[in-house]
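Question (not urgent): is this output format expected?
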Amino acid sequence: MNVFSGILVYVVLWWLVFFMTLPIGVRPPHEVGERAEPGHESGAPVKPRLWLKAAATTVIAGALWGIAWWLIASGQLSFRGG
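Got this back:
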């Protein structure tokens, strides 16, 4: 895997993991006994904690990238014919 492929795989993994972590722990105002402020979407989360989710995504995507790199470098996973 060259540098460009490695970066591309990491970015794709990062976004996939990020979208999977977004709904975790999200609670709209009506579930926690609050009212949405005027002008806010009623289903918007009270505390989305995006920084925590981005940090967790970075760690998880790094681990998955390491596994993908090992599989490709060891020859156990190949996208070339033959």
